[in-house]
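In keeping with the milestone schedule agreed at the kick-off meeting, the structural modelling team has produced records for the first pair of proteins. Each record is given below as a sequence line and a C-alpha cell line. The laboratory manager (R.T.) confirmed that both were archived under the project's standard naming scheme.
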Amino acid sequence: MSDLTVKESNEKTTKHLWPRLLVAVILLLALGAAGYYGWQQYQLRLAEAHKAEVQAEAIAQLEDQWGVRFMHVALVAEGGLLDVRYQVTDPDKAVYMFDEVENIPRVIASNGIELAMNDDPHTHDLEFGFSYFFLLRNVDDSVKPGDQVTIAVGDVELPFFEVEQ
C-alpha cells in the first residue's frame, strides 16, 4: 500500500495574501484621503456661502439705512493710503453719514485696528448715482492687498470686503 502524504502549504497561501492586503490598505488610505479632501472642500463652500449671505445682508442694510453702496477698497500710494469708494443710492440718507463722529465711515483691519477719517471731514453735496471716495492712512501697514476688512458706518458693519492693489 502506498502512503499518501498531504503537505500543508500555509507558506504558499501566506505569500499570495500579502500583496492583496497591501493593495487593500492602499485603497482604504486613498479612499479616506479622498473623503477627507471632499469634506474639507464642502466645508469651504459652506463658509464662502455664509460669508456671501452675511455680506449681502450688510450691503442691503447699508443701502437702506445710509443710502450708499461701497464699491471697493484699494491700497494706493505704495500701500500708505486706503482708497475707499462708494456710490450714492439715496442722497437724502447719505448726507447724514458725515454729520456725527460715530457715523463717519471707518475700515477695520483684520488685526482689529480701526482706520478712520478725522472728526471733521470735508463734505459736499452728494448726488444720486455718483461715486465718491475718501482716503484713509494705512496705520502700521495694517492692511495688505488681498486682506478682508470690515467697513463700518455707524452701527452697520460690512464684513469680508477684499482689499485690492
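The second protein of the pair:
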Amino acid sequence: MTLLELTGVKKIYRQGQIEVPALRGVDLVVEPGEFTTLFGPSGSGKTTLLNLIGCLDQATDGSIIFDGKELRELDKKDLARIRREKIGFVFQSYNLIPVLTAYENVEFAIRLVKEHSNQEVRDRVMETLAAVGLEGLENRKPNELSGGQKQRVAIARALVKEPRLILADEPTANLDSKTSEEVLEVMVKMNQELGTTFIFSTHDPKVMDYARRLLEIRDGLISQDRRREKADVSH
C-alpha cells in the first residue's frame, strides 16, 4: 500500500491582509522504503512540506493521505497519535533533552508510544543505540557528546519506536563532512535493514548523493522528480 499521497496540496500563510503562498499545489506519491531528498533554494517550501507530512501543520487546501488516512479529516488528538506512533523526526539542532542521558532521551520516545515492560524498553533502547554506533555512550548527556554523536542519538530516538516514516530537516547542517557521511551511512543502514522510509530536506550535496529519489522544489511546486537505482556515492 502507498505510504503517502499528496494531491493539490497548498499552504498559504497570512500576514494581516497579505497572503504568502508557501506551497502552490504539490502532487506527490511516496512508497514504503523510499530514501528521498527534497532540495531547492531557501524559501522554496521544503520545511513547510515536511511539516505538513509530519502532522505539525495543516494544509490550506488539497489532500494528504498518510498510511491510508486523510489527515484533514483527523482531529488534533488523532494527528498527535500519528506523530507519536508512526513518524520519527530528526532535526538539524538535534532537539535532545539536555538533562537526560543518551539512553534516557531514546527511552523517553519509546515510553510515549505504548506500554512495554522495563526489560523490553531497555533491550530495545540498547539495541537501537548500538545500531547507530553509540554502544558504551548511553550514560552521557548531550553536552558530553560530539555533534555527530548527538545526531546519532536523535536518529536512535526517531527509530526506537519503529515508525513508518522518518522526516529529517537539514540533518547534516551542523556537522562536518566526515561526520555527515557517517550519520548518512547510519540512516542508509536503517533504511536497508528495517525498510524505514526516509524523507530529507537539505542543501547538502552529500545528502543528495545518498538519495535514491531527488525532488526539487521551486516556488512551492515540485519542479523535478528524479529516481535512480542506487545512490551516487563513491568511497
